[in-house]
Amino acid sequence: MAINKVVANAKEATKDIKDNMTLMLGGFGLCGIPENCISELVNMNVKGLTCISNNAGVDDFGLGLLLQKKQIKKMVSSYVGENDEFERQMLSGELEVDLIPQGSLAERCRAGGAGIPAFYTPAGYGTEVADGKEVRVYNGKPHILEEALTADFAIVKAWKGDTAGNLIYKATARNFNPMMAMAGKITIAEVEELVPEGELDPNFIHTPGIFVQRIFKGENYEKRIEQRTVRQKG
Prior knowledge:
The protein has helices at about 10-15, 35-45, 65-70, 85-90, 100-115, 175-185, and strands at about 20-25, 50, 70-75, 95-100, 120, 135-140, 140-145, 150-160, 165-170, 185-195, 215. It is of the alpha/beta class. It has a single domain, classed as 3-Layer(aba) Sandwich (Glutaconate Coenzyme A-transferase), CATH 3.40.1080. Strand 6 (about 135-140) and strand 7 form a beta hairpin. Belongs to the 3-oxoacid CoA-transferase subunit A family. InterPro entries: 3-oxoacid_CoA-transf_A, CoA_trans_fam_I, CoA_transf_BS, NagB/RpiA_transferase-like.
């Protein structure tokens, strides 16, 4: 019997996201972010969100849109340097921020999806990142204990998916999306192309459909370039 996890659009996919929930949002910079779902969260005006994301978008795009409307209570991120409103809210104390080394953030999400409660890593030892955390020495090197991350909802963006929720990411968009897709109690996937179950080559699927509860075909993707660098003519 065919499995069908398709919902009509972002509005239907996110309809039961409530105030004060924890969300994971895939993407790296502005690459591979779930644009449709973020726009819908802005329209819903949900408040008090804890957002786990590699970064906080820019002032007028991505998670920056939620920051503008003061919908985010806490950001759990590894890089936040492109967002002036984020900086203002953090320095004024309006926004709670947990900055995590990028590799540790990725592994904490992956561990959450794999059912691993915590792990030791040398990253962050000797810095504020290690404050209050257990330390053990392995091979003569101090490691700190980092706990796994999970979320009420994981919201990801893929290039192609099928009706059973199997996902394929394209190029750099295969960043935080795969591990976050595993770590949500409910995972929502928006895709550029949606095909019937069985049309994707199993050898190239990055996220198996067992991790995805809702999927829909997104529209009107801007795919902005965060920093464009070109050579001078001549």
